[in-house]
Protein 1
Amino acid sequence: MTVIRLTKEFSFEAAHALDGYDGPCREIHGHSYRLFVTVKGCPAEDADDPKCGMVMDFGVLKRIVNEEIVSRFDHALVLRDSASGAELRRVLAARFGNIVTVDYQPTCENMLADFARRIAARLPEGVALHSLKLHETATSFAEWFAGDNE
């Protein structure tokens, strides 16, 4: 059987601040994120299957990533759930509705690990998450590969 990789690109806008960081990213700032999701599998071979020839329907991949990532993080302020930031989160939550609190420092790297867990858990049988690439800026990105995390 032939293994094929499919990639779909997504984008979302989000702000974050790095709690306790010793540089300018400790301040609240935003990014235009670009997320590339690559899955792999063998195309369906059953001629009676409406998905014959597909590893997975791009629409299904789009739905999974939109539900798990884009709808949650788009136009959100992402902050680490830390004791030192509790008061800030309380004040911001009184004014703004889309604050996402995570149990990790919301770096590009940590966000990728979180996204990988969320997406992989939702993929159909026979389809595996191969890699993710998250652009934080036009020239800066992080990558996650399944082969590095087995």
Note: The chain has one domain: 4-149.
Protein 2
Amino acid sequence: MSDTPDIDALLQSTPSNAVAGQLVAWADLTRNQIARGDMMLGILTFDEVAKIPVAYQTAAQHGEPSAWVTLAWWHAYPDFGEPDLKSAEYAIAAAIDANVENAKLELAKIRWFFKRDSATESETQQAYQFVSEVVASDPDDADAIYILALLTTHGFGVAASPESGFELQERSADLGNADAMFEIYAHHANGLGVPVDEELAFNACQRAANAGHSRAMYNLGAFNATGRGTPKNMPEAVKWYERAADAGNPSAMAGLAVIYATGDGVEMDHEYAQEMFDQADYCGLDVSHLREQVGL
């Protein structure tokens, strides 16, 4: 699919919207190769991967300004290599200057998720201001409300108010945001702005899982596997672990591996268990202690 001479030719082409679109398409397809493990197989080279951010930046400069946002996220959370938050900030600032839709919201996300402990006071205040502006302009933007709720709950750029944050998460969840549904679980489970209530927490987690939230699906698998908040039910645990694993959750992959390695409520299948361990390991989860525990 990706071929170094082709990308080199694109990068050296006369700037145009068509070339910009081709650069984005090449970068996106190359990232798909990373996801399916082509680097491990030697099909995809490091030199090609190194050109992904170059392709996005060149595309942004050639007439695809939305590529600035994609580039910012690549730097903040790359598919391969180390994060570069300075470059992420540069790219998202360029997106804001180019008036890319929701660029201000993406800046707030990057600062919250990746610079929570290092952002300056002015950076946190700017992030909160930007998200507030987005919500004010579109009161039904569930994603923006969810981020505003996180900042409000934990005091990022504003005085902390878990109570107000919880209300905002309820508003976002009612608009269909699965992340907000999961945060409602966290509020009830940890007593953030509301009393601790395990039943309400379980119900909120189930709501988020039914909406496709991978961490919530993993939690439901764990709850059913251990009998926490619900009677132990291994078939139900396997169902939720499988759904979470399909959504890319490595902890769920490891959970399935342990279940099938030990035959806990299922027919023992060491080959499948090994496959799940390998997938979890490829996703970056250290499963060495679990492999040792079950003899794989």
Note: The CA atoms of residues 253 and 279 lie 7 Å apart.
Protein 3
Amino acid sequence: MAEGNWFRRGVREIGRWGAVSAALALAPAGTALAQDDRMTPIAIPAQPDAITLDTGPLPGAKANESWHSQYGSRFARNVTVATLTPFLPDPAKATGAAVVVAPGGGFRTLSMENEGWDVARALAARGVAAFVLKYRLNQTPADMAGFEKSMREMFSGTAARPPRPDPDAAMAALAPQIADSRAAFALIRRRASEWRIDPDRVGMVGFSAGAMLTMATALAGQDAKPAFIGNVYGPIASIKVPADAPPLFVALAADDPFFASSGFGLIESWKAAQRPVEFHLYEQGGHGFGMYPKETTSTGWFDAFANWLTMHGYMKRAS
């Protein structure tokens, strides 16, 4: 696969450290929210607009989908069937552009609210159709106590790190998520007329693990081919960039504990390939800031992303 070393390194980091943005263990500092950091089980919320994708159930899954709340936000885990939820703009404001939104969570959970629905609503308010991808996840303990224990072990400073997975095996393990992403693009383009979308103006933005999935979707050389991509606090190590790589938007906090210390190879690679790239490095924000209100300039990432889309013509109606 064209992702090469960048994707391998990203997979290793996600694999070694577990549910990065799902636990948000490092993200809430400085938020304007005063919510409890405990994980509280909740009922699966009604999702009447969610469309089941045709990728089928996760092979070998034994635990059923469950949800919990933390920091005033909702998270899904043990997702075994992928869905896509449309957030369509007012027809009077619709630009014809669309974005697949991929929440993060270390491929173990999904930050459905902070990195999914809230992002999609903000895009729809700007006239861009947004589709939240609830992709299939690696299984975790079914009970909350078991899940919390596994999280504590992963983030413990004294616990031994899990062995590094074989890179090729790790990439193969993401095949379900990549299949879900491809299915999302196929569905959107198939129903583009119904949703008033230009099939050639469909991009993707992802967060942490979702950013990895976004990059894999764009660079795997398969049929999804996003028109543009956004990498929000995902890995930014160097990569071989194809000649037709889409415009890339990157946002990262300088104090991100996972991906801020490996240099800016991804940006340099895009520049070397003479492909459009925009990079925002925020002084503070940690990991997993998403749409949380915080007293840091990282909260400006969404406006920056919207302005970038405007510069590329995606906020204007197609002629």
Note: The first strand starts at residue 40 and ends at 42.
